[in-house]
Amino acid sequence: MQEHLKTNILNFKWPNSAPTIYLTSEDIEGSHPIHKSKFSRQIKEVFPDADLSNKDQIFTTFTTEIPDAPSIKLNLVDGRELRIYKQFLKHQLRNYFKSKDYIVVKNFVGDVQVWMPSKKGNTADYNLYYKFSFKIQFAKLTDLPELIVSYDGTSKVLTTSVKDIEDSELIKRCVYGQKTFNYQMDLDTEEKQEFHNAIQFDQAFPIFNLPLARALNIPIEEPVRPINKYQKYVALINNFATNYLFTEDFKAIFPFKTYAFIDVPLNRINHIDPQVGLLEFGKDQYGNKKTHLVPKLAMNNLNPYKRPNNQNIKFFFVYHTSHKEAIKTFYNNLKTGVTADKKYFKGIEAYVNIKASTSKEHFIEFTNESDPIPEIVEKLESLTFDHDNVRYAAFYLSPFDKFTPNPEDRDIYIQIKELFLNEGIVTQVVDYEKMVVNIENQYNFQFTLQNMALAIHAKLGGAPWKLAVTDKKELVIGVGAFTNQGENRRYIASAFSFQNNGLFRKFEYFDQSETDLLAGSICKAIRDFTSVAEADKVVIHFYKEMSYEELKPIIRGMHTLGLKIPLYILNINKTEAEDIIAYDLNWGKKLMPVSGTYIRISENQFLLFNNARYPNSQRYADTDGYPFPIKIKVSSPDEDAFEDADVVLELLTQVYQFSRLYWKSLRQQNVPITIKYPEMVAQIAPRFNNGVPDDAKDALWFL
Questions:
Q1: Which of 297, 280, 299 lies closest to 289 in space, CA to CA?
Q2: Rounded mean pLDDT of 179-205?
Q3: Cα(22)–Cα(67) distance, rounded to whole angstroms?
Q4: Has residue 561 been placed in a domain?
Q5: What's the rounded Cα separation, in Å, for the pair 469 and 275?
Q6: What is d(CA 21, CA 685) in angstroms, rounded to the nearest whole number?
Q7: Which 8-state DSSP code applies to residue 194?
Q8: Is the distance from CB of 240 to CB of 116 less than 8 angstroms?
Q9: 3-state DSSP call for residue 324?
Q10: Measured between alpha carbons, how far is 682 from 420 in angstroms, rounded to an integer?
C-alpha cells in the first residue's frame, strides 16, 4: 500500500511587505531584547555613534513606534534579520493568546506554549489543561514559512491556592494569572526578588505533583495511556487548529496557504530495508543458522544466540516473611510455564535454553519490610557461594512498586542490587503486588515471565540474539544520561562500546561535569578496539548535541593514537520527538508510518521511525506499541566526512539496527541500546554507595 505521510506543520505566506521595527539602545517599557548574534549590518548602520561591539543586546518595541528612534525594515533574506522576524512572530503569538485570556508560557526549549482549559476531566481538586506548543521555522521542509503545532500533554492546576497550603516545601511550579513560576526559585536577582515580593498567594495555584497531592489527600489516579498515541495526538492538533488557528483573527498574523497540515514532500522520504534489522538466533541441531525479524515471534520457536558461559545456574529468593507462600506459585510458573497450553511460555529453561535449579540453602527471609538491609547483610555474610562452578541469580520480591511515595522505600532495591553485585550475583526484582495480580491473570502473566527470562538470560552473560547483517568494521559508542530530579543533578554513562554485530563490550559512568573523564573513557574504547581490529569509522551516539568542549579531547585523543579514520557524532533524542511528527493516512486509523521510514527535516537532521510495523504485514498487534519517531542529527569534525552520499543512510541504518537489540523486553524499542543502556546505568549506578565493581562493568546487571 502506498503511504500518505502528513506532518504537524502549517504553511503560511511570506509577508507582502516586511515589517518595520523600532530600535533603542536602552531597555524601555514595552521593549524586547535583541541579542548581539542578531546584529546585522543594517542595525549597525542605524547606530553610527554607538559601539555595538561592547553590547550584548539592544532593544526593540517591534512595530510600536518610538519617537525619534531609529527603525529598520527587516530584510528577510538576511539570516540575522530573519531571526528577528521569527522573534517578532513569537511576540505576536504570545500577545494573541494572552488577549484571549489563556495561560501562555515557554516550553523547555523556549517555544511558545498555550494552555487550553479542558471542558471535561476537571475535579473539585484541580482543573485540567491541554498544552500546545508552536515552533516557527523558515523553508525547512517547503519553500514557505512553517508553523509546527505540537501537543505537549496535560497539566493539572490545583484549585487550592498557595495561601491555603501548609507544607510550602512541597509546592513546585504554580500558575499565576496567565503565566507560571517556580515557587522554589532561587532569589538570586533583583528581578526575581521583586516578582517574589509581589506574588498574591491567594491568586497563585500549584501545578499537580505527587508529593503535594498526597499531602492534600487528592485522589491519585493511575494515568490511562492511550493504546495508540498517534490517534490522540493527531485528533487533538486537528481539533485545536480547526477551532483556534483557522480563524480570521489568527490569519492576520499567520496567513496560512491552506487550512490543513501539509503532506511530507516525497523527496524528503526514504526507507531503510527492514532486512538490515534481521536478527540471528541460535543454530538448530543440524548447525543451520536461524534468523528472524521479530524477537517476540522468534523466541517461541528458536533458541537464543548464545547461552551464558556457566553451565550451572542457580536461583534463590530474597523475600519478606509474609510472601513466603507466594514464592512457590511464582517459581512453579517460572519453571514450568503458565496457562494450560503453555503456548507462549513453557518455562524459563525451555524459553531461553538453559539449565537452572533453585539453591534453597541461599534463600533469605527478612521481617522488617521498611528496613530489610541489616537482616539481609547479616544472613548474606553467613552464606557461602560456589562461584567457581555456579552462576547465581537472586529474585527479590519487593513489597514496594516504583510508584511508592517514600523514596527510601524505592531505594531498597538499589541497595539490594549493589549488595549482591558486590558478591558477584545478579538480581531480578519482582513487584509482589503486581505478581499477585498477574498470577490471577495467567494469560498476561506469561508475557511478564517471557521478559523476565530474557533479562535474566542476558544478566547471566547470555546473548538472546545479535545482528545478522555485520559487514562493517565499526566501533559504536553510546553516551546516555539520567537526571535525578531530587538532586537536580545529571549523571552520564558512556563507553558502551559495541561491535558492529551489536554485542556489548564495557561501560563507565560519570557526573555531568566530568567531561575529560568521559572523553578519556571514549578514547580508551577506541584504543582497545583498534588494537585488535581496523575500524572503518568511529561512531558516537550522544544523548544531546555534543559541544565543542566535549568533542575537543576526543579529537585530540584520536590524533594522539594516530588514527585517521572518520569520526561521526549522532545526536539522538532519547525522548520521543513530539515537536515534529509524521503520520500515515493510508494505514486505516492506526496512522503510524512503516518501520525504517526516515524523513529529512533539515540539513543532516532526520526523523526515524523505529517500530514493529513492516511492509506488507497483514496484522499488527496493539501490544507491539505505537512509538513516535526519534530525532537524529548527524555531524562530524572531519571536513570530508559526508563526501560519500551513502554515509548518512549507513549511520541511520546503524541506529535502526541497534534499536533491535534491547534485551529487557520483547517489545520493539524506538531508541537504540547505545542510548538506552547508558541511561539505565546512569539512573542506578550513582545511587550505589561504593560504585560499580570493576568486574561488573562488562555485564548487563542493570537490565
A1: 280
A2: 92
A3: 9
A4: yes
A5: 8
A6: 53
A7: H
A8: yes
A9: helix
A10: 19
Query: Of 423, 438, 460, which closes a domain?
Result: 460
Q: How far is the C-alpha of 304 from the C-alpha of 457, rounded, in Å?
A: 9
Cell (9 digits) for 682: 546512569
Give the C-alpha distances (Å, rounded to integers) separating 628 from 295, 575, 593, 604.
20, 9, 9, 20
Which residue matches cell numbers 513560576? 181
* DSSP H helices in 59-189: 79-99
Contact 153, 223 (CB under 8 A): no
What is the tens place of the pLDDT at every residue in 450-485?
999 999 999 999 999 998 876 667 778 888 777 765
- Using the predicted structure, report yes or no on whether residue 434 has a pLDDT greater than 80: no
According to DSSP, the β-strands at 179-182 and 173-176 are antiparallel
What are the cell numbers at 588?
486505516
State how far the alpha carbon of 81 is from the alpha carbons of 44, 76, 78, 107, in Å. 12, 6, 5, 24
Q: Helix count (H) and strand count (E) of the chain?
A: 18, 31
* Mean pLDDT on 284-297: 89
Residue 666 CA to residue 562 CA, distance in Å, equals 41
Please say whether the beta carbons of 347 and 336 come within 8 A.
yes
Write out the three cell numbers for 296: 517476540
Polymer length of the chain: 703
CA dist., res. 487 & res. 199, Å (int): 27
* 300-337 as b/e: b if 16+ CB within 10 A: eebbbbbbbebeebbbbbbbbeebeebbeebeebbeeb
- 400 and 534 together in one domain: no
Report yes or no on 191 lying in a domain: no
Q: Left if phi > 0, otherwise alpha if psi is -120 to 50, otherwise beta: which for 690?
A: alpha
Grid cell at residue 608 = 526515524
What pLDDT is stored for residue 402 in this prediction? 63
Which residue has 484571549 as its cell numbers? 100
Contact predicate 172/183, CB 8 Å: yes
Residue 506 CB-density burial (10 A; 0-12 exposed, 13-18 middle, 19+ buried): middle
Q: What is the pLDDT of residue 280?
A: 93
| Cα gap 440→438, rounded to integer Å | 5
Of the residues 460, 494, 527, the one at which a domain ends: 460
pLDDT in tens, 500-546: 666 667 777 776 667 777 777 788 777 777 777 777 888 888 887 87
Check whether residue 319 and residue 438 sit in a common domain.
yes
The pLDDT of 44-73, averaged and rounded, is: 88
Please list, in sequence order, all residues whose beta carbon lies within 8 angstroms of the beta carbon of residue 702, skipping any fewer than 6 positions away: 677, 680, 681, 684, 685
147 has pLDDT over 60: yes
Query: CB count, 10 Å around CB of 371?
Result: 11
Question: In the chain, how many domains are there?
Answer: 2
Contact 671, 682 (CB under 8 A): no
342 residue type, one letter? K
pLDDT band, very low/low/confident/very high, at 498 (cuts 50, 70, 90): low
For cell 546487571, the residue is 701
Rounded to an integer, what distance in angstroms lies between the CA atom of residue 557 and that of residue 97?
A: 51
Cell 506459585, residue located = 329
Q: pTM value?
A: 0.90
Query: Do 411 and 498 fall within a single domain?
Result: no
Instruction: State the pLDDT at residue 487.
Output: 58
CATH number, domain with residue 393: 3.40.50.2300
CB 491 within 8 A of CB 482: yes
Closest CA to 597 of 530, 535, 649, 537: 649
One-character DSSP codes across 550-576: HHHHHHHHHHHTT--S-EEEEEE-SS-
Q: What tens digit of pLDDT does each residue of 252-267 get?
A: 999 999 999 999 999 9
Cell of 651: 549511520
The Cβ of residue 169 has, within 10 Å, a number of other Cβ atoms equal to 10
How far apart CA 340 and CA 383 sit, in angstroms, is 38
Task: Report residue 3 CA to chain centroid gap.
Answer: 27
Sign of CA dihedral 459, 463, 465, 469: positive
Domain span at residue 343 reads 307-460
